[in-house]
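Milestone M4 deliverable, item 7.
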Amino acid sequence: PLDTYQGAVMPAANHVWNAVCLDGEYRLVDTACAAKSHPLNAESKTDSWFFMSSPKDTLFTHFPVSASNQFVDPVVPLSVFWMLPYVRPTYFQAKVKLLNLPHVPRLELHDDQVTPLVLCVRDSTLSVFAEVELHDPSGSGRIVARQPLLAQCMDYKGKRMVKVLVGVRGADVRGLIKIYCGTRLPLQPKRPGDVVQSPGKAQKMLGFLQGSKDKRSLSHDYTRVKDVDEEGNIKTVATAKTFPLACVLPVVHQGRNNAPTFVQPNAALPNEFYIKEPTDGQLHLGESISFHLLPVGDERLFHLQLRSPSGQQYKFIYQPSDQGYILRHTVKERGAWIIVYHTDTDGWLPIASYHCI
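Output delivered:
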């Protein structure tokens, strides 16, 4: 994905793979990409996808010197190949489809521009994480920064839709948009090393405990909310290690360095919520903020609250028009503002955390 292309001259060959014809149909085998030692193979396991893969799928990353070895009709020109995203087997296994990708070799952004990438995946058991990986301007390929993007799923007319908000913080930089896809955390089997926190009765009754007179003793004690650390950050947000890599898109940013720092939703919730606003994870003192969340794939009524750094609670209002939850509030405290919702089994759980600077 770090390669660049200019002109119509075919670059020198840098890789080999095998073609097998079975009953008149060609399949491709790449033992190098399948090897567990390959740096992009998840969990260092042999990747069976590269055994007998279809030519039309392999063509995203393998371009033969001779067009006759593409085994597709019509053949793909070199100029088109360079505009295809770099993909991994997860891209096909999760049935990822990029729906609004521009027909350009790379995505170009300016100043504080935020561009949505829309895609769909196989079904509602899957979730997505995305990040921008910025590289050394010298062209060495050294990673200088990783910036999480906001990737959210929505079930729409039987399809699992995903919107990724892309913005880059950095002046005149280039890098890669990396999109990861995999089974939602609550649906993944528990591993032997996992530690499962079981909330006590006091945790479940948190909303009532905070209504007591002694609020000052709880001021800025964010750990009173499950899965939140002492800084008010949610501990169970997705990262590049949560799901396997699906695809990579080059990105270039020019201009001012003032793109938003996107809010990161809790990836371990049993219920999903789509955050319509605010998508910026930073709030400003004295600012009046509109909060708007939509439940995903669940028509039950939920109890949502906004918790201030001092423990004050502000209730969301149910909005029948879109079955969402809204709240408008003026930020008057510095620190972490956490949106929580109530569950019958785990008490209050955090949906997202914002920070007032």
